[in-house]
Write a structure and sequence with these properties.
The structure holds 2 protein chains of 2 kinds.
Chain A: H1 2-28, E1 56-58, H2 65-75, H3 96-110, H4 114-121, E2 126-131, E3 134-141, E4 153-160, H5 173-178, E5 186-193, H6 211-224, E6 230-234, H7 236-248, E7 253-258, H8 266-277, H9 279-282, H10 294-304, H11 306-313, H12 315-322, H13 326-339, H14 353-356, H15 359-372, H16 375-386, H17 390-397, E8 403-409, H18 418-421, E9 428-434, H19 441-444, H20 446-460
Parallel strand pairs in A: 4-5, 4-6, 6-7, 7-8, 8-9
Antiparallel strand pairs in A: 1-2, 2-3, 3-5
Helix pairs in contact in A: 6-7, 11-12, 11-16, 12-16, 13-15
Chain B: H1 2-29, E1 57-60, H2 66-76, H3 97-111, H4 115-123, E2 127-132, E3 135-142, H5 146-151, E4 153-160, H6 173-178, E5 186-193, H7 211-224, E6 230-234, H8 237-248, E7 253-258, H9 266-275, H10 289-292, H11 295-305, H12 307-314, H13 316-324, H14 327-340, H15 343-346, H16 352-356, H17 359-372, H18 375-386, H19 388-393, E8 404-409, H20 418-421, E9 428-434, H21 441-444, H22 446-459
Parallel strand pairs in B: 4-5, 4-6, 6-7, 7-8, 8-9
Antiparallel strand pairs in B: 1-2, 2-3, 3-5
Helix pairs in contact in B: 2-3, 7-8, 12-13, 12-18, 13-18, 14-17
Enzyme class (chain A): hydrolase
Family (chain A): Belongs to the peptidase S33 family.
GO biological process, one term (chain A): epoxide metabolic process
Chain lengths: 462, 468
């Protein structure tokens, strides 16, 4: 009798093992490239058929003086934000006392030197061109090669910001990339666009314009500018768009470097959950403290993803609440520059904003959202992400064949260990950890990001 | 022989696992005793030792300076820079820009130009303030009319609003309760406060003011007014606060009526999942199945509508700063809820708010938030109620003997079944399903709510009524 039971148990376990192994192989298998319309039109409805205007024109980012004058008047209104609770720093969100300080600085100091800030923003050349019905703004900086220096190899680089960032994030990073240095044989020709719907780039008029569709537009932009093969660097949404670009257009992508590498394929997601339970199985002991386990992961998701939740479900509600609302915009956007730079800053009544940034830097970034009225269109990306259809989930399963570099800055919200990234990044040549820095390394620690990037480029040996 | 031992070990292992699981289960679902709770915590500013209590009751009249109204009109007159909706989209991405533009125009041109009328309406119900535990509490206090008091049994009732509501929700409901309706033997002395941190009630200045503290303040308010025993009626937060009141102070609550019967104890959740497989077994009629099921569909709908909850429960001061700095922003955020909390609104009907509530009513409610600048303090309540301090009270697991009545309106947030409610409210006397109506029941169908409430009261048999 017992023998029969044993036999059944063994057969049962064997069957189970076979099913699990087949499932695992299925999950491992790379996804197929989905049908893509690389000429899809995203602009407003037209009466005649669309004809793309392919001219690349210089773009003037000057802000009308009336806008600045009006902003000053609005910022002069009595601040109605409620006093913070006793003993609370940023644990309830942006502290009203700090907000008051920032608004005062914005009105009394920053806006009085706005012409200087505008000059600073113009230090790079700005352009605009039309891609698939959308006017796309970008900065284009050629490397400053000097005659008496050892010649460097030049590589084109697409730099993509995220939310709530703008091209302003890259203003200290770009000069490092375009200036020859003894540290690297390479120097870069940088294209830094405003993502569609952000800053000076037009947002889509149609639904369905998600991360993958943005990747198509960005790729077409690079082709328009004459770059058949290029490198990509990005964080936040820029990292996701770059990852989609690399997966969908391997023929165009020389290499991909990100400070927020992710693997959203089904296998990647399973592994991520498992690694949260048993971090030590998945990561190097040297950087074990970067990977904090399931409790932390869930806690962070709940604590920090309120903005994600509302933007993914009601972008127009929250967007329209922030448009023409400079105080609100500052509160909503700059909260991220506190908490995502270092979650411990929540305990500080000033949110630690000036620990890593200057008010000028932060307000430059907010001003771009304010003067372009782009906050609503910037948030719609999250709604498109949430209504992911078959298409985007297929892209997640497509591996990236190009040489990839993943770097992790300690205070970033969540990290993916290499073992979890494995089936997405088939050619991971560079994987690093940094003891400092948070979610906005290009803004916060541009030198470190640059050093890491050229380290990656060296290993990739393009 | 070896086989038998191995087999025996496997069985023993499963038995142990099963036994452990059973122990965990029973521990998780057993009811808990009423927790100790301090009913006199000082919540005012500064130190308690410096506090000089003031138990006087002061009259309150709304009297907004014309300059404030003019300033609001000026702000609403700014050129709107709102983003156009995507092609073919109504309210699927949030409150529609074109609808918002129309509301702003109406607010500025039609509503604010007759503000004096609206203010008169506000003041048509008698209002007062008094200090409870250091906080100035604003409330409506309307006694039963003379005619009603002469002929009916009169009882006090505490009406509790929620978010993004206010005492304005009760303006059609209250006259029904205080006057002789000729359909009930009861009339009521109504107390309808602004919640702490909402409307004209002070906010707490320290962390920790959660729904149990709120219930305590409200109960102490009723005691201050000489009502040792009273009914409680509420929806949204009002329902949860009422439930806490009935749980912590059962000696004060004659009966508790809710129009948003939710319960989140582990047992209720498990029962909900179980009942989803046999829905008709646990409901009075198969017509009411879609009030509760399918669970995953309700969950997804809730996920779609709860972005505001998530952000208010984690970053209330961030969103609060945005809402207090822009009346248009405040309108966008709050009006969205009046749109989605109606049946036609869910069908993307642009006329939903107008037909279900009326523009004036919704703008009256919006003005409460605007004039009192309370968006931030209102949002903080969410964070306090997801905090560990509050969750540790586990009030959903504490039974109360207080009689309960439950009214479920079809298009409100999902409620739980009687089968689940009875674990907390063993004395569930009344349960009704309405195939219409939604979240703001007192505003949308006050007569239905009044009817349901008085039926509940009657069922308590306080004057020898037979069971109906």
């Amino acid at each position: 009798m017992a023998k029969i039971f044993m036999g059944l148990l063994v057969i049962g376990l064997a069957l189970l093992a076979a099913i699990v192994s087949k499932k695992y192989q299925d999950l491992q298998a790379p996804g197929e490239r989905p049908e893509l319309d690389i000429t899809a039109y995203w602009g407003p409805k037209l009466k005649e058929p669309y004809r793309e205007n392919q001219a690349i024109l210089p773009f003037d980012i000057s802000v009308k003086p009336e806008v600045i004058a009006d902003l000053k008047v609005q910022l002069s209104r009595p601040l109605k934000a409620q006093e913070p609770l006793e003993g609370v720093g940023f644990q309830y969100g942006f502290n009203a006392k700090e907000l008051g300080k920032m608004v005062k600085y914005w009105r009394d100091i920053y806006l009085n030197k706005w012409s200087k800030r505008e000059e600073y923003l113009k230090k790079f050349d700005h352009f605009q061109t039309e891609i698939q019905g959308l006017k796309i703004h970008f900065i284009h900086v050629k490397p400053n090669l000097e005659k008496n220096q050892k010649p460097k190899k030049v590589l084109p680089l697409l730099l993509m910001h995220g939310w709530p960032g703008t091209v302003r994030k890259f203003y200290d990073f770009i000069p490092l990339l375009t200036t020859p240095s003894d540290k690297s044989e390479y120097v870069f020709e940088v294209i830094a666009p405003s993502l569609p719907g952000y800053g000076w780039s037009q947002g889509s008029s149609k639904t369905g314009f998600g991360v993958a569709q943005m990747a198509v537009v960005m790729r077409n932009l690079m082709l328009r500018l004459g770059f058949e093969k290029f490198l990509i660097q990005g964080g936040d949404a820029g990292s996701a768009i770059g990852s989609n670009l690399a997966a969908l257009f391997p023929e165009n992508v020389l290499g991909y470097h990100s400070n927020m590498c992710m693997n959203s394929s089904p296998l990647g997601s399973i592994k991520l959950v498992l690694s949260s339970f048993f971090p030590s199985w998945f990561v190097d002991t040297e950087y074990a403290d970067f990977y904090k386990g399931l409790g932390h992961f869930l806690g962070v998701v709940l604590e920090e993803m309120g903005y994600f939740h509302i933007q993914a479900s009601k972008p127009d509600t929250i967007g329209n609440a922030l448009i023409d609302n400079p105080v609100g915009l500052a509160s909503y956007i700059l909260e991220k520059f506190s908490t995502w730079t270092n979650t411990e800053y929540k305990g500080r009544s000033d949110g630690g904003l000036t620990q890593r940034f200057t008010y000028d830097q932060l307000l430059d970034n907010v001003m771009i959202y304010y003067v372009t009225n782009s906050i609503t269109t910037s948030m719609r990306l999250y709604a498109e992400y949430a209504t992911e259809d078959q298409f985007s989930s297929k892209v997640d399963s497509i591996p990236i064949l190009a040489k990839a570099g993943c770097t992790r800055f300690r205070h970033e919200i969540n990290h993916f260990p290499d073992s979890v990234l494995a089936n997405k990044f088939l050619n991971l040549v560079h994987s690093t950890h940094h003891a400092e820095g948070g979610h906005f390394p290009a803004f916060e620690v541009p030198q470190q990001l640059y050093d890491d990037f050229i380290n990656y480029v060296k290993k990739a040996n393009f | 022989m070896k086989c038998l031992i191995v087999f025996g070990l496997i069985v023993a292992a499963f038995a142990a696992l099963g036994g452990y699981g059973y122990l965990v289960f029973t521990d998780l679902v057993k009811p808990l005793p009423k927790p100790e709770f301090n009913d006199n915590t000082y919540w005012g500013p500064g130190e308690e030792k410096d506090y000089k209590p003031d138990t006087k009751i002061y009259e309150f009249k709304l009297d907004v300076p014309q300059a404030e109204i003019d300033d609001l009109r000026q702000q609403l007159n700014r050129t709107l820079k709102l983003t156009e909706p995507l092609d073919g989209i109504a309210f699927e991405y949030g409150f529609n820009t074109y609808a918002l533009e129309q509301f702003v125009e109406y607010w500025r041109e039609k509503y604010l130009t007759k503000w004096d009328e609206r203010q008169e309406l506000f003041n048509s119900l008698k209002q007062y303030t008094t200090e409870i535990q250091g906080l100035n509490i604003h409330y409506i206090h309307e006694k039963a009319s003379e005619e009603a008091a002469a002929r009916k049994h009169v009882y006090p009732v505490l009406l509790l609003h929620g978010w993004p509501g206010s005492v304005r929700e009760f303006y059609d409901f209250i006259p029904m309760l205080t006057k002789d309706q000729n359909i009930s033997d009861y009339a009521f002395d109504v107390v309808a406060p602004s919640l702490v941190g909402y409307g004209w009630s002070d906010p707490a200045t320290r962390p920790g003011f959660n729904a149990a503290e709120m219930a305590t303040v409200m109960r102490n308010l009723m005691l201050r007014l000489g009502h040792k025993q009273f009914f409680v009626q509420g929806g949204d937060w009002g329902s949860i606060i009422g439930s806490n009141l009935a749980t912590l102070y059962p000696e004060n609550v004659i009966g508790y009526h809710s129009n948003m019967c939710v319960l989140n104890s582990p047992l209720a959740i498990l029962k909900g999942i179980y009942a989803s497989f046999y829905p008709e077994k646990y409901l009075p009629s198969r017509f009411f199945v879609d009030h509760h099921f399918p669970v995953w569909e309700k969950y997804l709908e809730l996920l779609k509508e709860s972005g505001y909850f998530h952000i208010q429960a984690t970053k209330p001061d961030t969103i609060g700063a945005a809402l207090t700095s822009s009346p248009v922003g405040l309108a966008s955020y709050i009006l969205e809820k009046f749109q989605t909390c109606t049946n036609p609104g869910l069908q993307q009907d642009f006329g939903a708010i107008v037909t279900v509530f009326g523009l004036e009513t919704v703008l009256d409610n919006l003005m409460v938030y605007y004039l009192t600048n309370s968006a931030t303090t209102a949002a903080r309540f969410y964070l306090e109620n997801v905090s560990k301090t509050y969750r540790d009270l586990q009030l959903d697991r504490v039974q109360t003997p207080v009689p309960m009545g439950c009214a479920r309106f079809r298009f409100d947030l999902p409620s739980v079944t009687d089968w689940q409610l009875r674990d907390k409210f063993p004395n569930l006397k009344h349960s009704m399903y309405f195939q219409q109506g939604s979240h703001f029941a007192a505003l949308e169908m006050p007569a239905m709510l009044y009817n349901d409430f008085t039926i509940f009261v009657r069922k308590l048999g306080l004057h020898g009524e037979e069971n109906i």
